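In the previous chapter we treated chains in isolation. Here, by contrast, the input contains two separate entities that must be folded as one system, with a combined length of 669 residues.
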Amino acid sequence: MNLHEYQARALLKAAGVPVPDGDVASTPGEAEALSRRIGGTVVVKAQVHAGGRGKAGGVKLAKTPAETADIASHILGMQIKGLTVHKVLVVPAADIATEAYVGLILDRDSQRPVFMVSPAGGIDIEEVAAKTPDKILRLPVDPRFGLLPHQAMALAFFLYTDIKQVRAAADIMQRLYKVFVENGASLAEINPLVTTPAGQVLALDAKISIDDNELDRRPDLAELRDETAEDPAEVAARRAGLTFIKLDGNVGCVVNGAGLAMATMDLVKYYGGEPANFLDIGGSSNPDKVVNALKIITADPSVRAILFNIFGGITRTDDVANGIKTALAQFPVKVPIVVRLTGTNEKEAVKILQGIGMTALSDMDEAVSKVVALVGEAA
Amino acid sequence: MSVFIGKDTRLVVQGITGRDGSFHAKQMMEYGTKVVAGVTPGKGGQRFEGTVPVFDTVAQSVAATGANTAVIYVPPVGAAGAIFEAVDAGIATVICITEGVPVIEMTRVMPFVRERGARLIGPNCPGAITPGQAKVGIIPGSICTPGRVGLVSRSGTLTYEVVNQLTRAKIGQSTCVGIGGDPIIGTNFIDCLRAFQDDPDTDAIVMMGEIGGTDEQKAAEFVRDHVTKPVVGFIAGQTAPPGRRMGHAGAIISGSSGTAAEKMAAFEAAGISVMKRPADVVPLLSARLK
C-alpha cells in the first residue's frame, strides 16, 4: 500500500526527521489559510499516487495567500495519470543548496533492508543506477542489529563533507530506518534530502510503501489507505476478500489461486483472447465469494464472457458451483459463462451445475479456447 | 530417496487444533504421513483424533516424539514466532503454510534459520509431497503418483494443475515442492534444483515460476552451470501489468524488471525447455526424457 507524501511526511516528522513546515489542504480556503500562516512563497503539491506530478502541472509556486487559493483551486480536482487530486500539500518554498537521494528497500535477494543513497538527488534513482552506478552507495542492514552508527555515518559521508551535515544526515538515516522497521515498510524514500544555504539538512519529499501483510495487525496504518485513488471495483473486491485487478480485455476470469489465475489469463491470450481481469477467490470454500466475484465482473461493461477455472484442493468445487447457482438466482448474468472445475467434490459440483442447466468442463485448455470462441462469435 | 520429506519424516503440526491445522492434519494422516505430534499452547496433554499427542511447546514435542519436521498452520501474526520456535527446538525442516506473514519479520527469521542450519520452506506455500511416502502441507494427495520427475513451484493451484497433467499422462513425481509466493522465502529454486540434481530417484525437473524478482533468472544460470538433468520451465504472468501485485506478495513487476519475457529468455538461454502453457509440460518432458 502506497502512502501519500503528506502521510509519509507525518510518519517521518513523528520520528523526528526534520521536514519543512506545512500541512495538507482539501479546499482552496484551507490552502489559503496555510499559506497565510506559513508566510512568504509556498509550494502547492498535488497528493496523488503518481510520479511526474511536477511535469503534469501538479506542483506550483505561490507568492501570496490569494495566489495559493487560486493555484489550489486549479490543482484540486485535476487529473494526473487518471487519478483525481483530492488534497494538496502546502509547504514553504525552500532555498536549496544541494539535493540528495536516500532510499531504503526490502531487498528480495539479500533478504534484508538495503539503504541506497546518492548525492545525485531529486531525479529518478533507477536512471542514476543505470547511467552512473558509482554515484550510488548500497548498504544492506542486518535486521538483528539495526543500522549501526558507523554505517549511518558511512552513508552520510557519501553525501556530504561538512561534518555537521554528515552528523545531521546520519541521524536522519537512523530515524528513517526506525520508521521503516516499525511500520513494516517495503520502501521508504526521501527524495530529495536537501541542504539549505544556511546548512540545514531537510527531508523535502518522502515516499513510503507499507507491506500489505502488515495491515492486519496495524489498523492505524490500514486507515491511511486512500480508496478514492483506486478502481472502485478493486475496492469492492478487497472488502469481499477477493484479489481483483482490472485489465483491458473482455474475458472475465474467476480463478482460485494467484499462480493459476495468472496462468489462466496467459492462456486466454494464448488462444487469441484478452483477459478482462485478474481475480483470485482464494483458497477457502465460501459460496459468497463466488457471488461477489460474479457481481464485480458483471459490473464491467466490457466483459463479453466469463470463465471459471477452479482446481479444487482446499477449495471445494461444489461450494463454487453453489456460489454460481446462488448468484444466478439473485441477479441476471447476460453474458455466457464457461466453467472448468476439477478436484475436490467434482462430482457433486457437476450435478449442481447440471441442475441449473449448465455443463462443466474438466480441461483448462478446452474451457479457455471455448470462452475465447464465444467472445469471437459475440463480436 | 526423496527430497526434503519422505519415509523418515516425523511430523509435528503447529496449530493442530485450529481450523486449517486440524483439517490438514487429518488429510496428512490419511495420506500416510507420520504425524507424531501437534502443538497448541494451552492444549498440552490432549490427543488429536484420539491418537496424536498435543504439546504446549515444540521443544516438548521433539523431546517426547523425536519429531524432525514441522508444518505451520498458525495465523499470520504468530507465524514468524512459530518458525523461530521450531528451529530453536532443533527441527531440521520447517514448512510454513501461513499466508500473509509480514515480510519485515522474515528478515529476522532467515538469519536465525541459516545459523542453526535448518531448512525453511515457505511461508505462503502449499508445502511438499513425496508421493507414496509423505505429504506435508496442503497439496492434494489424490492428484500425485510416485515416479521420477521432481517439481518445484512458486504457486499452489498452478502446481496442482501441472501435477495433474503429469499424473494423467502416467508421469510420476519424485517430490513436488511449493516454495511460496512471498518476496522473502526460506527455500528458493536453486536449493530445490540442487536437491533434485543430487537425488538419484529424480530423472528430470519441472520448474513453475512467475513474475517478480530474479530468483528464476538466477536459477537458470544454476541450471546452465550445475544441472545435468533435463529441466522444463514455465513462467506465469505473461499478461500481468507492471507495478501491480498479482495476488502473491512477490508477484510484481518492478519498473521493467521481473517480467515473464525476461525470465523465459533466461530459461531458453540456459537450455531449459520453456512451456508456453501448462499443457505443454507432458510433450516437452516426454521429448527431453527420450
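Chain B touches chain A through 57 residues (CB under 8 Å). The mean pLDDT of chain B is 95. Compare these points with the single-chain example from earlier in the chapter.
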